[in-house]
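Continuing from the previous page...

OK, I double-checked the sequence for Glutathione peroxidase against my notes and this is the correct one:
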Amino acid sequence: MSSTISDITVKTINGEDKQLNEYTGKVLLIVNVASYCGYTPQYEGLEKLNQKYRQAGLRILGFPCNDFGAQEPGSNEEIVQFCTSKFSASFSMFDKVHAKGSQQHPLYARLTNAVEPTVEVAWNFEKFLVNKQGEVIARFKSSVQPDSPELIAIIEEELAK
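Thanks. Re-ran it with the corrected sequence; updated structure tokens here:
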């Protein structure tokens, strides 16, 4: 199985198809997000990363997901309203996906098989880092905060390449 995500198509939160190969040359942080989770305050940290590193080539891709504790029950419109009003989130948001199970989105099938541990996403706000060539290179548990030194270090390392 390919460890790149470039051939995958996703839907934006507005319902438009987007080819992930459009992000070639950018470093991606892909996160399954939820509005009613103990980790939801990470939206703030994700937006800070977006503000700090966007000019350098980082793109944060948020994928709402209701697979864990039904913590993302809202419509796409409600999700956008929540993220922008509560956290001023300006990074890219996408259509709600399944990160695990029989209806797992092809993106998450690829992400979870690309790097260790090759297991299903365990909870909301799990993070995957993708290099400029579209290769999945790192995975971080939900508990790893967006401003954690281990995450910042690898983002900066990839941006510098």
